[in-house]
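Table S2 (text version). Query chain:
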Amino acid sequence: MYATMRMTFRHLIAWREAHALTLMIYKITRSFPSDERFGMTSQLRRASSSIGAQTAEGCQMPTIAHRKLYYDRAYASVAEVDNFLELAKDLAYINDETYRSLLIQLNKVGFLMKKLAVSQKSPTPLTSPTTPNLPSKLASRNHATTIAHSPDESAPEPHQR
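Corresponding structure-token output:
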């Protein structure tokens, strides 16, 4: 019959606001010194576009844990943009008014990204598989890692590097 329309990243307010921030960043970095083309200009553009890209990728992930991982990465990119905006202001590449308007948009994006990441309730964290519980005799042979022991046994000390 009719195909159901799946929600895409374009439906997310966080993505739309991140996209608006990226457009603002591209516009203001046009006026950065030409010797910054492969330095701060590139870093700031990549960091800002990463917020939207990570959000878009996360939206398409099949599990809650994977989506949360991408949204957390997008949130981390907000901090990277914040760092470069502060540097751009301190180097007088942008004026105070431009800095304030970018910071307002960045704070909005950061708030939305954090809320989006927190909204992804995962029953189990996305980690590597755990080591199965082994009988004590087998567990005591493995000195490199601590494996589950019976309550009355102490775990072996890990090797020092």
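Notes on Table S2: The chain is about 60% helix and 0% strand. The radius of gyration is 23 Å.
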